């Protein structure tokens, strides 16, 4: 699949007003159970936002290099000061007293299981942690709690997580030795799930109370559990098992307290460049969209899938272009509010930034054309392989001599017809995005803003290169950094 040439099916010309009125006013007629309203985007005129979360500043610090992240409106790195963070990730030791056992040693922390830990003490420490990590109560961004040791659903604690079931049962048996194993397990399940619910809900409530402008949610939630591609290679559909969806429904209390959802769409090496990868991601994102509509609210929860630019089980292999479509492209077409690119190394590739530019600008164009900039474009049929891509016949990506990347062109009537036939609008809360006539789209240069280069920057890059190349090991590292992404210093890229 070539994302530069989106598939098109040319139908007969029909009345524009009828098309736009129909797709904008009746998404439920198409079998879409989601509400017609969605949470407004974090940024103005940014229906689909790309968030960069990686320690790319190390190349800047060590070698004076800067990555081209202009197409990522929200940038957060592990070593950036809190005031400059757009995304805050709270790991197990960074938010309160998270009860858990060490995965390998079995060491107990804060009681081990939630029913053995003090919620009051946890919240007391969590308040200090939030103050430190998010100093301003006016800042907007993503607040992601990454607690992965146990799951709030009893039956989802398997493999190495069985320790939480065993210790919960032991606590019950210690109180009453007359109980049978079945009876003790039944009581332990209730106690564990009630304590887990209190820990998670109170943590979210504290975060929302202290920093209401942040979008609070738990990493990996919801999960689809569609991992059966390893077992049923030929018949893989990507669908979430019915039991998994039912258990997600049981977590309604979690979705009601969350203000955003952060599912994972990491691809394994087994799924690379395959149709199964597309199905895997599609159903995971769609399940998050379904879950986001469960709470009784006037608008659905925004979904920000987490993705990587490498295979999670082969971190030396970057994703092929088709898998950028299968992850980022799928997320945008299904109506996600954005995508979070997470990395723990310098896994930045030349194809990522152009594709992010393509998708984000196509999402803006569709929102402008069909939704009056007051809604987000979503596939009419979520099972279809229709994507928000700029038509290469109408737009072209151009890199100037200074390295600035931009998309230049204008949408043709054919482009607008394709969008109106394949996509519908979900209006932002409190907005009316219904169009009754075809908008006039003038010639527009979609360019990303970035500071202009100066001659001093180029000279500094050349001097640094000469110096570092004298040291073979560090010189090779500098060249590696230059090849990892779209770097401002073209001198490095030329010589490396």
Structure description:
- With 496 residues, this protein is of the alpha/beta class.
- Among the domains are: 304 residues, TIM Barrel; 41 residues, no CATH class.
- The chain is built from 14 helices and 17 strands.
- A hairpin with a 2-residue loop joins strand 10 and strand 11.
- The chain is globular, with a radius of gyration of 24 Å.
Q: Which geometry do the CA atoms define?
A: globular
Could you estimate the helical fraction of the residues in percent? Answer: 25-40%
Strand order in the largest sheet: 3-2-12-9
Q: What is the CATH domain class of the domain at 1-78 and 224-257 and 261-452?
A: Alpha Beta
Alpha-carbon Rg, integer: 24 Å
- CATH H level of the domain at 1-78 and 224-257 and 261-452: which superfamily? Aldolase class I
Under the CATH scheme, the architecture of the domain at 1-78 and 224-257 and 261-452 is: Alpha-Beta Barrel
Rounded mean pLDDT score:
81
Percent of residues in β-strands: 5-15%
Please report the total strand number as a whole number.
17
Measured between the Cα atoms of the first and last residue, the distance is 30 Å
Number of helices: 14
Low-confidence stretches: 1-35, 442-457, 474-496
Q: Major β-sheet, in short?
A: 4 strands, parallel
- Look up the CATH topology of the domain at 1-78 and 224-257 and 261-452: TIM Barrel
The secondary-structure class comes to: alpha/beta
Keywords: Disulfide bond, Glycosidase, Hydrolase, Signal
Organism: Callorhinchus milii (Ghost shark)
GO biological process, one term: carbohydrate metabolic process
Disulfide bonds: 224-240, 366-377, 371-425, 427-433
């Amino acid at each position: 699949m070539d994302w530069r040439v989106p598939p098109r099916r040319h139908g007969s010309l029909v009345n524009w007003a009828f098309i736009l009125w129909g797709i904008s006013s009746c998404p439920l007629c198409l079998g879409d159970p989601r509400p017609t309203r969605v949470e407004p985007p974090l940024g103005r005129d940014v229906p689909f936002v790309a968030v960069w979360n990686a320690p790319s500043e190390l190349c800047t610090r060590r070698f004076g290099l800067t990555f081209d992240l202009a197409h990522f409106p929200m940038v957060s790195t592990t070593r950036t000061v809190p005031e400059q963070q757009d995304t805050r990730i709270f790991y197990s030791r960074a938010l309160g007293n998270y009860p858990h056992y060490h995965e390998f040693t079995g060491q107990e922390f804060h009681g081990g299981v939630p029913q053995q830990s003090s919620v009051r003490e946890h919240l007391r420490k969590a308040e200090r942690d939030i103050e430190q990590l998010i100093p301003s109560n006016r800042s907007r961004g993503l607040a992601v709690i990454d607690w992965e040791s146990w799951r709030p659903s009893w039956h989802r604690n398997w493999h190495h997580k069985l320790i939480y079931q065993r210790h919960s049962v032991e606590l019950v048996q210690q109180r009453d030795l007359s109980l049978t194993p079945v009876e003790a397990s039944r009581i332990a399940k209730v106690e564990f799930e009630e304590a887990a619910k209190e820990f998670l809900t109170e943590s979210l409530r504290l975060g929302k109370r202290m920093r209401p402008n942040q979008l609070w949610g738990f990493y990996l939630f919801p999960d689809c559990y569609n991992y059966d591609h390893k077992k049923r290679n030929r018949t893989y559909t990507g669908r979430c098992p019915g039991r998994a969806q039912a258990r997600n429904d049981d977590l309604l209390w979690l979705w009601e307290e969350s203000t955003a959802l952060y599912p994972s769409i990491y691809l394994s090496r087994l799924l690379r460049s395959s149709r199964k990868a597309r199905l895997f991601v599609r159903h995971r994102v769609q399940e998050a969209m379904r879950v986001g509509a469960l709470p009784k609210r006037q608008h659905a929860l925004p979904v920000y899938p987490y993705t990587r630019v490498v295979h999670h089980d082969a971190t030396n292999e970057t994703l092929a272009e088709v898998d950028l479509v299968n992850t980022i492209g799928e997320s945008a077409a299904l109506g996600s509010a954005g995508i979070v690119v997470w990395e723990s190394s310098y896994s930045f590739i030349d194809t990522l930034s152009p594709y992010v530019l393509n998708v984000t600008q196509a999402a803006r164009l569709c929102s402008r054309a069909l939704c009056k900039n007051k809604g987000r474009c979503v596939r009419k049929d979520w099972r279809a392989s229709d994507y928000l891509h700029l038509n290469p016949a109408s737009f072209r990506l151009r890199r100037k001599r200074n390295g600035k990347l931009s998309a230049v062109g204008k949408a043709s009537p054919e482009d607008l017809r394709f969008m109106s036939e394949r996509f519908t609008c979900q209006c932002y809360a409190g907005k009316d995005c219904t169009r009754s006539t075809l908008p006039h789209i003038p010639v527009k240069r979609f360019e990303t803003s970035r500071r202009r280069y100066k001659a001093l920057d180029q000279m500094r890059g050349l001097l640094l290169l000469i110096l570092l190349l004298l040291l073979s090991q560090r010189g090779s590292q500098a060249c590696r950094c230059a090849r990892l992404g779209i770097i401002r210093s073209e001198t490095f890229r030329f010589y490396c």
